[in-house]
Queue: 2 jobs
Job 1
Amino acid sequence: MELLSGGDILIRALKDAGVKDVWGYPGGAALHIYDALYRQDDVFHILVRHEQAAVHAADGFSRATGEVGTALVTSGPGATNAITGIATAFMDSIPMVVISGQVPLSKIGQDAFQETDMVGVSRPIVKHSFLVTRAEDIAETIAKAYYIAATGRPGPVVVDIPKDVTDPSHKVPYHWPTEVKMRSYQPTDKGHRGQIKRAVKTLINAKRPVIYTGGGIVIDNASEQLIALAKKLNYPVTNTLMGLGGYPGTDRQYVGMLGMHGTYEANTAMHHSDVIFAVGARFDDRVTNDLDKFCPNATIIHIDVDPTSVSKNIEAHIPIVGTCTSVLTEMLAIAEQMDIEPDAEAIGEWWKQIDEWRADKGIYTASRYEPSSGTCIKPQDVIKMLYKITDGRAIVTSDVGQHQMFAAQYYLFDKPRTWINSGGLGTMGFGLPAAMGCKRAFPDTDVACVTGEGSIQMCIQELSTCTQHNLPVKIINLNNAALGMVRQWQDMNYSSRYSESVYEDSLPDFVKLAEAYGHVGMKITHLDELEEKMRECFAMKDRTVFMDICVDRSEHVYPMQMPGGSMRDLWLNKTERT
Amino acid sequence: MKRIISILLENESGALSRVVGLFAQRGYNIDTLTVAPTDDDTLSRLTLTTQGDDQMAEQIVKQLHKLIDTIKVVDLTQGVHIERELMLVKLKASEADIRAEVKSCVEIFRGTIVDVTPKTYTVQLAGDSEKLDAFIEAVREIGIMEVVRSGVSGISRGDKFLRV
C-alpha cells in the first residue's frame, strides 16, 4: 500500500471526494497542507484576500452547483475569520467542508501562537465538526465530512487538523473508504406513506390553497416535481427569499415572494388560505410576522427533511419528514391514482380573488413607486434594467439590505440556483465572494453581484482575487450613500434620526477603486446612461466591471409587513397601508 | 413539567459539549446531567432532566437527535420509568440527641451512614429526586454542611430498553 504524509493524504482525499476547487488562505499551521497542494495538479486552489471570502466563495459555488464547497484556512485568526462564512452557510443549509489548520497536538491548550479552539468556537454553527488526531484518520474523516455535509439537511462541516498530523516526514498508508456508514447518522429520505396520502387528500380538497415553498426545493433539486404538482393542481405558488427560482418567477401561478417584503397578493392569499402546503420552508419570522395572528383558518401540511423544522414555529397538522423530491414524487403518483380532483369552481373563485388582489395592489401589475427621472434613478428600475439586459438569465448574487429586497422582488428568477443570497444570517459582504464562486462554476454565464455601497465595502478586497484568478463578475452597486435598510427603519421607527447610517462624504471613488485593482469602473448618475452603460458592462465578457449607480436616497422597500401584525398587514408605500 | 431525557451517544471527544451547547444555544435549561460510558465503551449513556411542556420536550428530543453523535434519544417521562439519584450529605452531629435523630431519619429514608467523625455524620441516600428533597427538608434544621447529588439516572420499566 502506498505511504503518504498527512498533508498528501488530505489532498488525495479531497480529490477522491470529487473536489476540484479549494478557496483558501495559507498560514503557519496549514503550511504542510499548502506544500502538498503545490506538489499536485488535481485540486486547484484559489487564493482569496480574507478567509471570510474563502468561505463565501465556496458557499456561492455550492449554491450555484449543488456540489459541496470547500474552504481551507489556517489556525487562529484564519479560523475565526471563517466563522461568519460558516454561520452564513449553516443558516441557509449549504453543504460545505471547511478545513482549518490547528497548532500541533502537543501545543493544544497551551495558548500557542495562533491557537483557537476551532471545534469549540464553531460548534453552534456547524452541522458537525472533527478534530483529526492521527494521519491515519484523515481520509476517513474527509469522507465522512463530505457525506455529512451533503446528505439530510445539508450544512457546513469543519475539519480541524493539527500541524503535526500533516507532518511530511510521517508517512502512513492511504485508504479511501468506498462507502461511509455511521450508526449515529442515518438521514430520513422517504416520507411516511400514510401521511403523504392524507396530505394529498387534504390538498386536493382545499378551496383556498397556497403552495408555500422555500430553500429546500432549491437545495434538493425538487423544482421539476414542484412545477408538475402545482401545474396539475392549478394552485398559486409563493416562494420564500431562499426559494426564489424554485418555481418560475414569470409563471402565471406564481404570486411573488411572501413575508416581510413579500407581495400583497402572496401575503394576503396566505392569510386567507384554508390549506397551506409548505415544502422545504421553515416558517421563519421574516415570513410569518406575528405567530399568534398567522393564517387563522389554514390547515398546515409541512414537508421538511429536518424534523426539528416541523412544528418548531407553527404547528403542522400534517407533518411529513422526507426530502422534497422524494415526497413530491410520491404525492404526484398518489394524486394520479386518486379519483378525486380539485374543486374547479372553488379554485376558480380563489384565482379570481387573487387576480383582483394582484390588479389592485400587486407590484407586477403596475408600478407602485414614483418613476425614475433624470438624476433620480429608482433602485427598482436598475434591477428591471438588469433583468432586461441579462434576459433574466444571469446568476444574481446579492449582499444584504434594500438592494437585496429589490433584486428579490424585481428580478424574476425562472430557474433554481440563479438567486444566491444570504437569507438566514443576512451577511453583508457575501455578494462579491459568492459571485466569484458562481463565476468559477459557470464561466460562460453572466454573474451579477447586486450590492450597495455599504455591503460591498465589507469584502471589497476580493476585487483583487477577481484580478488574480480572472473572475469577470459584474458588480451592480446601488449607491444611495447610506445604509439603506437601516435608514428605512430609522425613517419608520426612529423619526428619521439617522444614527450612524450615513458616511458624510467618506465614500471612496468606486470607479478609481475598481481601476486600481485592474478592473473597469463606471459611474452612473443619470437615467439616460443606465441602459447603454449596462449593455456595455455585460458586453465586456472577460472583464470585471464595477457599476456604481447613484440611486434615489429616499426610496423604501415596499410592501413591508407591519410589526406585530398578521401576514396581510402591510405598508404598501410611505403613506398607504392595508 | 419535569422531563427525564436519556441519550445514547458516541463516546467521542466533544460529544458531551455538543449536547450541553445545544441546551444553551436553544434557550433550554438543564436541571441535572449525568453521563458515563456503558458496558460498550464506544457508547456513553447520558441522562438529563429539564422542564418543559410537550411541544418543548418534542423539540428538545428532535434537536438532540439531530446531533451527529447521537444514536438514540428517549423522553423517559412519556412512559413508566425508574428514576434514581444518589446523594451524599454531611451533617453537623456532635451532640448525642442530634446523632440519634439523624440515625432515625436515615433509617426512615433507608439511607446509610457512610462516614462518621465526632462532629459529623455523612449520609448516603438513593432514590427519586423528590425523596432526596424530602430528606434534605427533614434534616435542614439539624445543620447541613455539604450536599452532593449525582443528578438523575433513569431507565424505562418493563421490556423496553435503549441499546444500539
Note: Chain B touches chain A at residues 9-10, 13-14, 17-18, 21, 25, 55, 58-59, 62-63, 65-66, 68-71, 164 (CB under 8 Å).
Job 2
Amino acid sequence: MKKIINQPDQVVGDMLNGLAYAYDSLVRRVPDTTVIARTLDPSGKVGLVSGGGSGHEPSHAGFVGKGMLSVAVAGQVFTSPTPDQILEGIKAADEGQGVFLVIKNYTGDVMNFDMAKELAELEDIEVDSIVVDDDIAVEDSTFSAGRRGVAGTVFMHKILGAAAESGASLKEIKALAEQVNNNLYSIGLALSPATNPEVGKPGFELEDNEIEFGIGIHGEPGYSRENLKPSKELAEEFVSKLKKEANWSSRDKFAVMVNGMGATPLMEQFVFMNDIRALLDDGEDLDLVYRKVGDYMTAIDMAGVSLTLLKIEDDKWIDYLNAPVEVIGW
Amino acid sequence: MAQTEKWIKSFEHFSRKITDEKSFLNELDSAIGDGDHGSNLTRGVAAVNEKLEQQSYDNLSDLFKDIGMVLVSKVGGASGPLYGSAFISMAKQSKESDDISSLLSSGLDGITKRGKAETGEKTMVDVWAPAVDALKDGTLDQSVIDSALESTKDMKATKGRASYLGDRSIGHIDPGAQSSAYFFESLLEAGVTDE
C-alpha cells in the first residue's frame, strides 16, 4: 500500500481538518464530531443531511454549502457513520423546519441513520428521509439487501438542495425525493480495485486485462468479469442494461453523469462520455438536457467509471440541476 | 462472583478474542463483505474497555447500557447497531430478570428487530438463535456454538452486503457469525452460564 497518510486509523479526522481548513469560507467541522456543516447564516429552511462512509470524496462533504447540503456526516473509510455523529449532524442542520436525510441503500447506513432518526425524534426534531437505490447492477429482490445507492445520490443532493434553497417544505422534499429516486438509474465498472487504508490491501483482485461490470462503490461484486474492451463497447454494455430499466422512447429528457471511481483520469472519462453521447443522443435520440463528467462518488483509488441517468419527469428538475451552488465539489 | 463481575470478565474474554483475531475476521469479511469486520469490532471493544476501566457497576442494566451505547457509537457499519441493539435490549430486560437465557433472548430480539433478519440468512442470528435455544434447555456448550457457526458456511446470504454475491456467498463462514461465536464462547469461559 502506497498512500499519503499518517496513522491509517486517523485518516478521516486528518482529512476533515484539511478540508475544513482549505475551504473555511464554505464549511466548518463541528468540534469533536465528524460533521462538516456549512458556514452560512441560518436560512430558516429545511435542513438537508447526507453522509456515509469516507472514501467517496468529494462525497459527501464536498457538496455542503449554499444550494446543496446543510451538513455531511463522515464515517470511517467505507463504514457508515454512527448514530451519535448523525444526530450531531441533524442538530447542526436543524433550523426549525425539519431535517431531511439522504441515505444510500447499504445495510449499515440504513440502520445507523434509522437509529439517529429515532434519537432526533426524542429531541423533538422532525426528520424524514429517502433511501437512494439507483444501482441497477443488483437485482431488486427479497433475496438481497436490494439495490445499492451509488453516484445517482449526487443528483439527489443537487435537486433536493435547490428545492430546499427555494423554500420547499419537508413534506414537499420527501415527495420530490421519492419521485427522483424512482427515475434514477446507475451502473458502474471497475478496472482495478480500491485499497482501504485501514485494511491495507486491495478489496478484490482483477487480472491485468480484466474488468468487472456492475461493481459497487466499495468494491462489492458486480455481475460479470470480462476482458477489457474499447470504451465504445463498455458504453454499449451500460446503455443496453440501462435501457431495460428506464424504458425510454425517442426525445425523452434525461440528465446524464459520467462519474470517475477515483483513479480514472478525466481524459478517459471524457472519451467515455463521447461514446455515451453517440449511443444515447445520436443512436437512441434521447434529449440529454443536463450533462456532467468528473469524480463525484469515488471509491478511494478504484479505477473505473459509472454512468447515471435521471429521467426528467418535471422540467423544474432541470432548473434545480442548473441552479447556482457554493460548494467544493459540484 | 456477582453477575456483573462475571459479565465484565466475559466481555474481557470477548475483547481479547476479537483483538487477537482481528485479521482473521477481516479475512472472513473480505471473502463476502468489505473486509473490515475485525477492524471495526476491535475499535469498539477497545472503547468499551476504556469505559469499563473508568466506571464501576453494581447492576447489569447500567453495564449493558454503557456497553451498548459505546458499541453503537464506535463500531459503525452494520455490526455497531446490531451488537449495540443487543446490549441495549439486554439492559432493558435486566430490570425484569437477570436470568441468562431471558437476557440473551432479549438480546437476540434486539438484533432481529434492528436487522430484520431471520435464521438461515447467513448472519449473526444463525449463531445467536441456536445458542439462545440451547441456553434455555441448559445445553449450551462449545459444540453447539461450533456447529451453529459451521452451518453458516453452506448458507446463501440474503441479508447485508454478502447478499450481493448470491450463490457465491456459499462456502464461506459469515464474519458476524464468527464474532458472535467468540461472544458465546466468552460467556462459557467466564462462567456467566453457570447457575
Note: Chain B is about 65% helix and 0% strand.
